Amino acid sequence: MRADRLVATLLLMQARGRVTAKEVAAEFETSVATARRDLEALSA
C-alpha cells in the first residue's frame, strides 16, 4: 500500500539522512519511477 511505503520512506530518510530514488526502489522492491513519485509526493 502506498501510504505504508511513504511512511517507511520517511523513516528510511530519518535513519540515513539522505536517500536516492534508486536506494528507495531497492529497499521497497519498486521501480525507480515509483520511488521517484513517492519522493516527489513527500517533498510537496
UniProtKB/TrEMBL annotation:
Pfam families: HTH_DeoR. InterPro entries: DeoR_HTH, WH_DNA-bd_sf. GO terms for molecular function: DNA-binding transcription factor activity. Keywords: Transcription, Transcription regulation. Residues 2-44 form the HTH deoR-type domain. PROSITE patterns: HTH_DEOR_2. It comes from the Bacteria. SUPFAM superfamilies: Winged helix' DNA-binding domain. This is DeoR-like helix-turn-helix domain-containing protein. It comes from Salinibacterium xinjiangense.
